[in-house]
Each structure stands twice: as C-alpha cells, then as structure tokens.
Task: structure prediction
Amino acid sequence: MGDTGSRFDVLGIGANSVDYVYRLPAYPEVHGPNAKMRISSHTLCCGGQVATALATCAAMGLRAKYIGATGTDDNGRRIRDELLRRGIDMTDAVIRDVTNQFAVIMVDEHAGERIVLWDRHDGLLLRPRELAPEILSNARVVHVDDVDQDAAILAARTGRAAGSAVTSDIDRLTPRTEELVSAVTMPIFAEHVPNALTGEADFERALRKLRRLNPGLLCVTLGARGAVALDGDVFHHAHAFQVDAVDTTGAGDVFRGALIAALLRGDEVGDMLRFANAAAGASCTRLGALNGVPTPDEAAALMRQPVVRA
Result:
C-alpha cells in the first residue's frame, strides 16, 4: 500500500474514464437530415466521476488521493499519468490487465449538451478487500460514487466511523442505493434520483422524505437550473450562472469537487452551493471533463456574473 502516514484532504474512491469527444453540428436522429452528419471536431479527454471531482479538488489547492481500478492499455496509462500530473496521489490506484473504462461523448456544438455512451470491463470492479482501513480513516473527506457499491459503502462507513465527512455521487437507482445514502454524511444526488427514491416530483418534498435515510446535508444538482439542498430543516435553491456552454460533460463532477472545497473552507451552505455552481458553470465553457476543471479564480469571477432565474 501507499502513503498511509500523511493525512489527505480528500480521498476519492470510484470511476475514471478516457473520453472520445465528438462535437456535432446537431443532435443525431434516426431519420431526417441529422441521420448522417460530418463531425465538427474530435478530441481525446480524461474524465470519470471521481477522477474529475478529485481533479477539481486538486485545482482548488486540496491534497487529493485516488483509489480506483485502471487498465493496462494506453487509456489506463493515460488516466493515471493525467491524474498524477494534476498532483493527485496515485500510489494505491489499482491496475488490472484489462482495457480501461472509456466513453464516446457526442456534443451538440450549439447547445453544449451531450450524449454519453460508455463501456467498462467487468474486471475493473473495485473490491472491498482492496481498500486498506488505515487509508480510509486518513482523510478529512472521503468521496465515493455509486459505480462499485460494495466498495463505496465500506469506504463510506469506515470514513464516517473515523470522523471524516463522506460525500457521494449518486447517479442511479439500484437495490443498494438507500444503503449508500444512509452510509454517507452528505449525499449529492443527480436530479432524477430523489424522485425515483420517493415518488415526489418536487425536490423539497423529496428531500424531506429522504430525511428517513440521512440526517445530514442533502444536495441535488440540477444542471442549468443550479442546485438545491436541505440543511436541517432549511431548504436552499442556488441558481446557475449564465455561460456560453461548449460542453456540459463533467459539470456535475466539478460541482461535487468544488462543493467539497467549500465545505473544507467552512463556507455556509448557500455559499457552498453558489461556489459549486460557479465552478460547474465555468467547466462548461471548455471541451472535456478534466479539461474543463476551473481554477478558484475562474469560479470566483463567474460568481460576479448574473445567475439564470428559471
């Protein structure tokens, strides 16, 4: 195992990806003029939920460590080198003799919205036994996603027992989603998840119902509509900032990384949401997930601009 003696600000456990990003003049369609079109441009970028969140934390000046499974192919080497270049500790990243996770991302060059097609070899499953308790107990924040849920739940429980804040990227509904929500201290949901868990279309009512699972700060990312959170009994809605979006890939992951930075700074909840919205908005002005990770100054500059009140 790697560096267990030094305390990290953020330990991230979860997915990484290498993304093949194609900018298109319009969304593809089965029939009609957009059934066949020329690619405007294409590029190879690194990303993935936890990898992008950690890159954001590192850009915000935090000491970050990554644990997740990577492949032995060129993409596996590419993602390890890229995270290392960004100052993220990779000594406990797992290397498997399989292809790395990758995605094909089609971006509408006019709206910046995207479609993601991905593949992940089953051999990249991160196993709970690969997580050393002394590492899980040695970070101020433990951040997990919901890709390898056995490992995520163990990491969340171990970190929480050690007194760490435990944040999460909850993007889907599975038989273990409620268990993961209960294990962390700050669930951060994609916008479709609270409705799927509670049957409530209204976010405030949904989060209040989710109090049965978790008493901490509950947060939902809403894309162009900003973000909402339930802090105790107080409901917050922070609007997004106006940007000319180039690519929204990774914006939610950047939001999570910036929210962690604001949490460790001791910001109030409303300020945390505004800063995370600004970082996510700034990330949309560049192509690619890790390529879009902003600096603190870029996020601060956007916070001085108007918000979108939809």
Summary: The mean pLDDT is 94. The two ends are 49 Å apart (CA to CA).
